Automatic annotation (TrEMBL):
GO molecular function: oxidoreductase activity, acting on paired donors, with incorporation or reduction of molecular oxygen
Superkingdom assignment: Bacteria
PANTHER family membership: LUCIFERASE-LIKE MONOOXYGENASE, N-ACETYL-S-ALKYLCYSTEINE MONOOXYGENASE
GO CC annotations on file: cytosol
Enzyme class per UniProt: oxidoreductase
Protein name as annotated: MsnO8 family LLM class oxidoreductase
Catalytic activity, EC: 1.-.-.-
NCBIfam families (alphabetical): oxido_grp_1
Lineage: Bacteria, Pseudomonadati, Pseudomonadota, Gammaproteobacteria, Enterobacterales
Protein source organism: Enterobacter hormaechei
Keywords: Oxidoreductase
Length: 215
């Protein structure tokens, strides 16, 4: 994980020649879609055909971090996540822009970054399908098999692309070492009084999230 995936992607692109490199998830709600498009258009211009833009809907951190990242942003002007993703899609794909477009996220790379939406709901899957993006089901955060079947079914009804499922994998020299590492992995769900639900990695983070959110 990196708080600045664009910088890390640029470094990896500079060290490689053939592999595709992308973000596991730019938390779009914190940023201007236009600025994200500019960053990834620069990366795609540097390494055409090798850049993937993964976007996540969740805040990806504790409430204090979210407030710090969104300081000065007007929630009304920001719009819904679907509106933000639609704006981002328009600015990374020149074919979606009209000839009279006043604002362009330059440079316009010869091969745009491929879009991937990380989510764990039918709503997210349908949003990705509507924009012809790839969809990644976040099973590492929500491993409910019934929900996975429901989302995959909806996805296949609306997109010809293959669904991707993100899972946690532990690799170690021996089974005993792998089992020991697995025992340290925790997934905690937090549901606040306002209905907000998040997934965190420890009991301490769960309490910290609730405390910072005022729950």
């Amino acid at each position: 994980a990196s708080p600045s995936p664009e910088l890390l992607i640029a470094w990896i692109l500079g060290q490689t020649k053939r592999i595709r490199v992308g973000s596991g998830g730019v938390m779009l709600q914190h940023y201007s879609p236009y600025k994200v498009a500019e960053n990834f258009n620069v990366l795609a211009a540097i390494a055409p055909g090798r850049v993937d833009l993964g976007v996540g809907k969740a805040p990806g951190g504790l409430p204090l971090s979210t407030r710090a990242l969104q300081h000065g942003l007007n929630p009304q002007e920001k719009g819904s996540f679907a509106e933000q993703l639609t704006q981002l899609d328009r600015w990374i794909r020149p074919e979606n822009q009209s000839a009279e477009e006043d604002v362009r996220a330059t440079p316009l790379p010869p091969v745009p970054a491929r879009g991937f939406l990380l989510g764990a709901s039918t709503e997210s899957a349908l949003l990705a399908a509507s924009l012809d993006w790839h969809f990644v089901f976040a099973a590492h955060l929500n491993g409910d098999p019934e929900l996975l079947r429901e989302v995959v079914t909806a996805w296949r009804q609306h997109s010809v692309r293959e669904v991707i499922v993100a899972v946690q994998a532990i690799v170690a020299p021996t089974q005993a070492e792998a089992d020991a590492l697995a025992q340290k992995v925790e997934v905690w769900g937090v549901e606040l009084a306002n209905g907000q639900r998040v997934t965190v990695a420890s009991e301490e983070q769960a309490y910290a999230f609730a405390r910072q959110a005022g729950g």
